[in-house]
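Incident review: delayed structure delivery

Summary: a single-chain prediction request sat in the queue longer than the usual turnaround. Root cause was a stuck worker, restarted by the on-call engineer. No data loss occurred. The affected request and its eventual output are reproduced below so the record is complete for anyone auditing the incident later.

Affected input:
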Amino acid sequence: MNTMRKNQSFAYILFCLLFLLTCGVSRAQLNLAPNRIGIDGGYGITSHSTSGIHCDTCDVVYNGGTGSAPYIGIVMDWDAIDHFPFLPPEMGLTFGAQYLFSSVNMNSPGYAENVKDQNGSVVPFLRTYTLTANLPEVAADLKAYYKFGRFNVSAGFAGGFILSPTWNAKVVINSPGNITYPATNQTSMTITAPETVPDVNKTQIYITAGIGYDIPLSKSVLLRPEINGMLPFTQINASTSWRESFLTLGTALLFDLGTVHNDTVGLPFQKTNIDTVHIKEANIASDYFMMGEEITRGNTVYRTDTMYSKIVPPVAKLTIHAVEDNGDRVKITNIQLEVQYVTQAFPMLPVVFFDDHSSTFPARYNTLTTPSGFSSSSLAPDPLMLHRNVLNIVGDRLRAHPDAAITIQGFADPTTENGDCELAAARANTVKTYLTQVWGIDPSRIVSKTGKNNCVPDVITHKQAEEGYAENRRVLIESSDPTILEPIPEYRYQEPVILTPPKMEYDPTGSSTQGIRSWRLETIQNGGTMFEDTGSGAPHVVVRFISNEQVQTLRGSSPMASTLTIEDTNGLTATATDNIPVAKDTLSTEVDRLSLTLFGTAQDKLLPKDSIAIRNFMQGYNSHDTLSVLGYTDKLGDTASNRELSQRRAENVFNLIHRIAPSANLGHSVGVANSEYPPGVRSYDTPEERFLARTVQIEVRKKQGR
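Output delivered after worker restart:
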């Protein structure tokens, strides 16, 4: 009973609200007069669900069924453009009130019994029990609609009141055909005469939705075919969970009342076409809306509104930190740099290495398409970079010395390539083709002496690992003319002795991260670009090291200026800068250095050409200068063996210098093995780096300018 009373109260409130919309309220006061009013009618299909209905005189249970609901009623429309200007003009409200002639037939097969047919056989007694309920109902609905062209989609709530619910029941014999009821002498019989349905909750509440299509018949008459559905919140009978749902198909005939709120919409059924232009500006205080002028053309009103939105420009922040060895980050206030001048002659490594089973140059070698513009003197003072230009240096020298010739010999690894002579010859041919086609060297000046049976290097690397195999896949270049393979001419350059900090972190914390299209980070010093990074999206931390090449261009009188520029999706940009002073000092001493790349694997003996190079290097030596010798190895051997080997290499060179210049101020000779890299070598990853590491470095320290 409490649930029924609660539902009745809700329905009464809903009916009162709906009634207020249609009562005689002054248009001048509340402006509730509808835009259109009309009649509608149609046919509905009902679906009844129950947990089992049992009438007093029935012996069976009915579990639901389908029925029909013809209806007739009235309908009213309120357009949002006239009554609710805060809503889109395509929206509005519609109200309807209908009388529904609802009825339903619920069928049940009854209980299973057996009888004898006309032949005396026992057969099933098949019957159909039918409960017919008439549920006439007065209903009203209030829905919001949205127009898509001529289509309108609506949804809302409805309430109904069942007027005089009655039902009756009958039974019909289906089989066998020889059986009749004695009371009627027929195969059918009325079980229950029409009577009032007991315990009916007459107040019903629904959720409703529909779709219609507007067809103008004239300027003031509109035909609207529509489909609507109603799903119940309430039950007709609570004890049996009896619910009734509707699906209706009907047509409404509507008449325009000419109810408009402004004078620009003068014609019935006028269409309003409103465009909104969205403009983003940075130079306004806040967002604001400006309504445009209305222009009427025929039955259509056009208006263009403008929405101005304030653009918030992006924010850029940049801080440069020094990253200490322990991981600490400290704001950089200045860059401290102490350099010394170094004059160094770099040895030639007359070998080209190849990848496994390949006769094409690895990508790490610098190959040209034309020699135009090449100059070995313009290459960076870096032994590794010089080696990767070895073919260009040899080609340049062959052009400068037209009488010189070279011999090339290709090799293959015995373990991974079985000393394949075809592969070795192909590698030698690659080198020869490059020198002839790119550098224009006459093929007769290049002699290939690659073998035909076992093309393994004379001095082989025996390490049974990829590091050893890679060193055997090579082409050796030899020449009887010492000018072709002599050390690279002396370079004089600045070498950092102390650089603080060596590692810098560009931190954009505090910069905008949302709506960022791209960013660009640039560091400039003395008019030249040191670093440049770009990316899409929000900026991120960038870590940079100052290279030896960049040390050459640093000037103490000019700050290192870094700029972070970010651009958002609106095209607005923001920049942040961080200028760091550079303090650069040059030591009063300078260094002459010679690196000899002349030792084979596990070898410590000097060759005659190396003795010549050392004698030339020691010319002009002053007894006041300090001389030191450092021996190096690669990492292929064990630590103890490498230490002994590097020491022997250093002592052999040291002893030769002592014989050449007995009065030399010899500081020390030390074998460092592979505990540190020789100058210019940064790893042992490639075979050329390991070859360059089998060296001895002679260093003469003297007063600057002597």
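Verification: The chain has five domains: 2-21+33-52+61-105+138-163+199-256, 271-310, 319-339+492-586, 348-486, 598-703.
Action items: add queue-age alerting; document worker restart procedure.
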